[in-house]
Design a protein that fits this description.
This protein has about 150 residues and is α/β, with parallel strands linked by helices. The protein has helices at about 15-25, 45-50, 65-75, 100-110, 130-150; strands spanning about 5-10, 35-40, 50-60, 85-95, 115, 120-125. Strands 1, 2, 3, 4, 5 and 6 form a six-stranded parallel sheet that branches. β4, α4 and β5 (about 115) form a beta-alpha-beta unit. The radius of gyration is 14 Å and the shape is globular. The protein binds flavin mononucleotide.
Length: about 150
């Protein structure tokens, strides 16, 4: 069964709420195994064993969180050449922007050779029910794509 890995960090809980919604949407797809881990706890093996990846982070100082950066720092060279064309998407919680975090993550993802398969979800300010629905849809879309083998 294809495996979808959700890697996220949250400090004050907002990205965590989005991650839960993403997981909920993904788990509605029965043909995929969904695993969710905090970035600091995500290992190289978690990355190497997944078939799709969802990355969630707050934007801090115009960048991704240090925790997500740590995940990249730890896995980049050991995973080099081993995750090519991995389908991925991003979700961000931001006070007022979020574009810096997206830009940096996409740059790094290009280095891994990953393939972006959905528009980044950027949620600014308070999280609304509509935002949570969009997060669920993002999880569902990735999971459905993996289940159907369209990536
Ligand atoms: C240290 C720090 C730096 C931040 N920098 C930015 C920023 O550059 N751009 C932005 O839009 N929001 C910024 N914010 C706001 C957070 O992105 C926002 O509160 C987010 O919802 C936090 O997510 P979390 O609850 O998952 O930790 C910053 C917050 C903190 C604590």
């Amino acid at each position: 069964m294809p495996r979808l890995l959700i890697v996220y960090h949250t400090q004050s809980g907002n990205t965590g709420r989005l991650a839960e919604a993403v997981r909920c949407g993904a788990q509605a797809e029965t043909g995929v195994e969904t695993i969710m881990k905090r970035a600091f706890d995500t290992t190289l093996d978690d990355l190497l064993e997944c078939n799709g990846l969802l990355l969630g982070t707050p934007e801090n100082f115009g960048f991704m969180s240090g925790a997500l950066k740590d995940f990249f720092d730890r896995t980049y060279y050991p995973a080099e050449g081993k995750t090519l064309a991995l389908p991925y998407a991003i979700f961000i919680s931001a006070g007022n922007d979020g574009s810096g975090a997206v830009r940096q993550i996409e740059r790094i993802a290009t280095g891994y050779g990953w393939k972006r398969v959905a528009e980044p979800l950027i949620v600014r300010k308070e999280i609304t029910e509509e935002n949570l629905t969009h997060a669920e849809e993002l999880g569902a879309a990735l999971a459905a794509g993996l289940a159907l083998g369209i990536y």
